[in-house]
């Protein structure tokens, strides 16, 4: 029964999310946590691994969650669920888009979807940032923890490098990992 539940949950996520994998994050977070399939910290770890491995983010995260919950078959069910709606919708859109792309209704719909997707990505970013930077909640105690400063520094450095220099994401992931390892040796008591 868990396999059907994984499939249907990720099918719904895939069907009702526009804008790609990052726009799916709020739905994935809500669904996965409400089912109790993984902890919030595990989900953050899955997001980090999904971002740093080859392939589409949505496929990676659904595969990881499915594998955690139901093994290989769970991974297959979750991945098929998240991919199937996009596949079907793309077949339909490809068939009719060229005919209707100049339509005022289609152009208006696309203009309305773009800012909504940006808002959903921003919501996911804030939610993940809150979990990474404030794992115990919004307290001032976090500011005496040196790992907070390390995490914030890595995030700012990678953000600036990504925006200003257009470095390849693999290089940024490598830099972040190296800084994390270095911080782990320099701050062993903090448990980076």
Which key terms come to mind for this protein?
single chain; 192 residues; mainly alpha; 2 domains; 7 helices; globular
Characterise this structure.
By secondary structure, the protein is mainly alpha-helical. It has 2 domains: about 1-135, no CATH class; about 135-190. It has 7 helices and no strands. The protein has helices spanning about 1-15, 20-35, 40-50, 55-100, 105-135, 145-165, 170-185. Helix 1 (about 1-15) packs antiparallel against helix 2 and helix 3 crosses helix 4 (about 55-100).
Q: How much helix is in the residues?
A: over 70%
Q: Rough shape?
A: globular
Structural class: mainly alpha
Task: Estimate the mean pLDDT confidence.
Answer: 83
């Amino acid at each position: 029964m868990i396999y059907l539940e994984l499939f249907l949950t990720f099918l719904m996520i895939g069907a009702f999310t526009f804008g790609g994998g990052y726009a799916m994050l709020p739905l994935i977070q809500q669904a996965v946590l409400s089912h109790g399939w993984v902890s919030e910290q595990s989900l953050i770890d899955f997001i980090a691994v999904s971002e740093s491995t080859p392939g589409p983010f949505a496929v990676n995260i659904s595969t990881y969650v499915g594998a955690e919950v139901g093994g290989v078959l769970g991974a297959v069910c979750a991945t098929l669920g998240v991919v199937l709606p996009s596949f079907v919708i793309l077949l339909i859109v490809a068939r009719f888009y060229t005919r209707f792309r100049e339509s005022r209704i289609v152009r208006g719909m696309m203009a309305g979807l773009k800012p909504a997707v940006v808002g959903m990505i921003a919501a996911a970013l804030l939610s993940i940032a809150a979990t990474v930077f404030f794992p115990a909640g919004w307290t001032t105690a976090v500011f005496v923890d040196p790992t907070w400063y390390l995490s914030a520094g890595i995030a700012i450095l990678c953000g600036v490098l990504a925006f200003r220099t257009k470095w390849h994401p693999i290089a940024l992931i490598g830099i972040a990992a190296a800084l994390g390892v270095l911080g782990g040796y320099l701050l062993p008591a903090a448990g980076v």
